[in-house]
Amino acid sequence: MMEAYVSWTVTEDDIYGADGEVVGVEEYALIEKIWVPAEQRCQGKGRELMEQAIKEIEATGMTCKIAALPFDDGMDMADLVEWYETFGFEVEDTSGPAVIM
After folding, report:
1. How far is CA 76 from the centre of its chain?
2. Which H or E run contains 67?
3. I want to staple 57 with a disulfide (CB 3.0 to 4.6 A). Which of 2, 44, 64, 91 is the partner?
4. For residues 69 and 58, what is the distance between their CA atoms, to the nearest angstrom?
């Protein structure tokens, strides 16, 4: 049986000033995947993994973002976004295939 997991990468984005010049770089952790086997869902495992990941990321001093994208049959984007909102994330960008929070 495959184990539940959460994964993230450290990402950098340029920060632009009013004149369009790059004035700095924002470094953050982007949680890209969280997966729990179907038979272990609705038992708190996903919440436990997310809370642990957020705690580890925040301990480094980085902010945390989410790339919300259902990658399993039966997952609904609206439900997924709503679930991430329970951790305090807010929608930032919906222009791509994933919702960035």
Report:
1. 16
2. strand 63-68
3. 64
4. 22
- Rounded to two decimals, what is the model's pTM? 0.79
- Per-residue pLDDT tens over the stretch 47-58: 999 999 999 999
Helix (H) or strand (E) holding 52: helix 45-59
- Cβ neighbourhood burial of 24 (10 Å; 0-12, 13-18, 19+): exposed
Tell me which residues of the chain have a pLDDT lower than 70. 1, 72-73
Phi, psi of 24 (to 5 degrees): 175, -175
Beta-carbon neighbour count of residue 45 at 10 Å?
A: 14
